[in-house]
Fold GNAT family N-acetyltransferase.
Amino acid sequence: MDYTFRKANPEDQDAIWSILQEGILRRKKDGSNQWQDGYPNADVVKDDIEKEIGYVLESGNEIAGYSAVIINDEPAYADIQGKWLSDSDFVVVHRIAIAENHTGKGLSKQILLSIEDFAKDNGIFSIKVDTNHDNVAMLKIFEKLGYVYCGEVFFRGSARKAFEKVIV
């Protein structure tokens, strides 16, 4: 199947929010505390699109996945308890979610690989991410793709595992 990774537009907002709601329910079903506190929400999606940091993975005319992709802007990452691999420009990835009818196809990995291409296209060779300690699926994906555990960062009062991948 061919997938297209592109910037989200306002018409995508409802589909993206639906995908994130499915992800919220999936996290809960998996016993994870991630995304169980009212975040993300529809306002976050609207804000991502307005700031032009929301991206979708499209299969034909259907949105199969979503992620926020941010260059050099995550204040929480400045206060890592640990050490990043690099101090250069970086791409931050937040809110990876896959539509329920597209799970199990490796699309989170596809999104991360698309973000690697995005980073290289922008002359950036570092990707920084974080996830809850109990998001086993995402932790496995980071490991498979060569992300290195760098320490902990804190969001909304809770610790998250932080990873970096230096790409060449």
